[in-house]
Amino acid sequence: MKRIDIYIINNFLSKFLSIIVSFLIIFFAVDIIDKLDNFSKYNISNQEIIYYYFYTIPWYISLALPMTLLLSTIFCFSILQKNNEITALKASGVSLRRISAPIIVSGLIFSFFSFFFDNSIVINQLSKRESIEKKLKPKRKINQSRKNNIYYHIDNTFLGIKRFNYFNNTATNVSIQKTTGSDIVYRIDAEKMIWAPNENKWKLINYEIRKWKKNKLHHYSSSDTLLRIKDINPEIIKKDNINPEDMSYWQLSSFINKLKNKGLNFNRWLVNKHFKTAFAFSPLIMILFGIALSIQSPRSSSANGVGLSIIVIFMYYLLIKFGQSLGYNNIINPFLSVWMVNIIFLLIGSYLFAKSKT
Predict the structure, then answer these.
(1) How far, in Å, CA of 94 to CA of 89, rounded?
(2) pLDDT digits (tens, 9 = 90+) for 218-264
(3) Domain check: are 55 and 163 in the same one?
(4) Beta bridge partners of 160
(5) I want to staple 205 with a disulfide (CB 3.0 to 4.6 A). Which of 106, 192, 214, 215 is the partner?
(6) Which residues contact 267 (CB under 8 A, 6 or more apart)?
(7) Whole-model pTM?
């Protein structure tokens, strides 16, 4: 069986390498054609273009990995079936589940690889690409200038803004906290915060202040006041902030803890944290589905397998993104919003695999 396992793995990996290289070539060709005019328009040098795509390779690999594994599994089993090798193994007393074991183990290994690859190499390379990416983006139109969920941590002051309007320099649902060590000195919550350019300060509208002095809480509110926040003005806020999608799993965990400790909303970041683990689990699900589809239709052509693969991967991406949006809007639990798709696909794949004739 050791030789058989090695033979199956070699067959599987050879398909995997050829398919993922094909996907990378397609991604490069499509992206270059799409961005060719912009490269010329924004005077991107040849060296910058080379660096841009060098930094993009890991992201392309991550994007193509689930689809590649699904197709590799189907092609591998289709060829084994076409050459009557599976029939010979079954006649020798080797069950179909045992034949599938090395590929399923590979799926588990690819899942761990995907998690660490996405949260280390992909994130780091995309951050390096960011300076070139900004050159390719046209200036933001003023009627589209709005930013949500903004957070700054400067010295001992933490600022949280739910929404900021670029047109009138107005922030809504504002929270300002100042700490000394682990103790909170004061917390300000304001309905609005408007930039007053003449005073070079922020005007707080309908605000409340809670101050702690000698273990006593002092609370008062007012309709408006002027406040200077160190190093924070509209120009700083208008600069690009890091999105939760651009953070690694560990960065998200650390940032969520900060928001949680300060009593701020961290739902979007929590959904993206769970998405990191859910998507990393997709290689195992795709391999399990590929085996199940191959077993259910052993005599079908490779074209049918490709068609089924496209449907499966399209449904997976569609449902996991839909679940992610439900999680963002607090409609369902952040964990279930992304993991329920994995659970559904895993149950269907396991059922199809279990009911097959071994």
Answers:
(1) 5
(2) 888 888 888 887 767 787 776 656 667 778 899 889 888 877 776 77
(3) no
(4) 151, 175
(5) 192
(6) 327, 328, 330, 334
(7) 0.75
